[in-house]
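Lab meeting, action items carried over

1. Structure of the two-component assembly. Owner: GW. Status: complete.
Input record:
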Amino acid sequence: MSDQPMVLADRVSKSFGTNRVLRSISLKVDPGEVLCIVGPSGSGKSTFLRCINHLDRVDAGRLSVEGQLVGYREKAGKLYELKPKEAAYQRRDIGMVFQRFNLFPHLTALENIILAPMKVKGTSKADASAKALELMDRVGLADKANEYPAHLSGGQQQRVAIARALAMEPKLMLFDEPTSALDPELVGEVLDVMKELARSGMTMIVVTHEMGFAREVANSLVFMDGGVVVESGNPREVLTNPQHERTKAFLSKVL
Amino acid sequence: MTPRDPGRTGAAEAEPLAAGQEGEAIKAIPLRHPWRNLAAVILVLMLAVFIIDAAQREDYGWADVGKYIFDKRISAAALVTLQLTVYAMVIAIVLGLVLAIMRLSPNPVLKSIAWLYIWIFRGTPVYVQLVFWGIMALIYPVITIGIPFTTPWISIPNGVFTNLFITAVIGLGLNEASYMSEIVRAGLLAVDRGQEEASRALAMSWGQTMRYVVVPQAMRVIIPPTGNEIISMLKTTSLVAAIPLSIDLYGVSRGISAVTFTPVPLLIVASLWYLLFTSILMVGQYFIEKRFSRGSGQRRAAKPSSFAGVGTTAAVTEAPTGNEPGGKG
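Predicted assembly:
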């Protein structure tokens, strides 16, 4: 099964009311691949990411993770919406990191990380804590375990959020503009953690405006605009030699 | 002033202050507030006159106050008042949570039913509602179980509303639930949507998300008004006279005074007991609020480990030396 793509999107569309946010998106992400999605705001990048773990639902096309349809079950040619429990089960293998961190403010960094492993996977508190401390060390925050999020800088909060997602031992990590809400001097520390993660072989889909990161780390890059994939390919080629006018216009503004 | 380049402005302003030297301390005559002081003096005088007068006035019957304040009948009635408060609030909080979740449900029927409930119970006086519950046993003398409009399978006499204490608890609880549901709803809505999404992205179920993520954060918003509601409920229990139930603090003190013809001392006795309970509740509320504000940033940085903390303390302690060379650090 190792030749099965991690994520396969086949003509995926999504509307909010009359607003067509995604129009027939097709793409494939292989295990171990790092895909960066770039594009102007409102181009549907984040929505696509949210569809992958069923925070938003797809209207048309087929979206699957590891060969399993996201949010639906196909039986005798008919699609059945998954029950909340089944949808939650699908998300166990998908970690997500948000632009605004979304740490739980009433819990310490350590409690943030151990909550889901304990409640969802039934891991004992001792095991979950040991694993969490390991992860906090990995993101360079071993001494912040008992701090509440309000006492951490944005960069530290985002690194805790990454550790929290990793605690569920996901096979796929989704990053929704992980550095966009950060002060410029804090962006580097988060990107460093993500680079290390990419080197360790994690499959990652990263919506970002960090072109340097995309060039250095990504295996492939997708440029989205107006809900469609305008251009995709090797990040160095797309960034240095864009083929499409819209890509050129966008890159001339951000580079 | 002629515009200068910003770099030199900072340097020029820093110059007159040599390092380690402070400007002359301000020794100004403080602004006087004669009217404010006069008002305070008048109020204190009025209060003193009232107290001296009240201590001597016979109608207050201070001797009777002392006699009845620890009367067994009164303290037993105070316990009934406490029980009414606790049981009614338990019903109100549980039902209020259910109603709040119904109102936030995407299902329009559940939403409308919750709205209708709140509309009726908030829109009519609690006194009128209590009278209604009091005569419920006459309206529904028997409880029947079976298919509607056919011969019932089981038919039992309505024992619930003939018990006046239970009737009072139900009446107070159902009324209060409408207020509690609005408080709970406001609390749930105050939690950022991102919290629920982060929780779901971690594969937690709806129940786990509510229990471990949303409700603990909503509590910070829910606790203070709920404390007020409990205090308010303690006082509202005196209205159970409408049912009519007369074993609570107010009812019993009225009952005693009807025999002894000393209404004023017994009203004072009841008031003192109510005050005692509300004061205890206010202290409890303070500590519960403190507990649920964990992580909300009120706790001062305990350790100077985070550089944000170092920044602020450094700024405060070094400010008087004034040797910072202009510009943002």
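2. GW to write a short summary for the group page. Key points so far: The CA atoms of residues 15 and 325 of chain B lie 9 Å apart. The mean pLDDT of chain B is 84.
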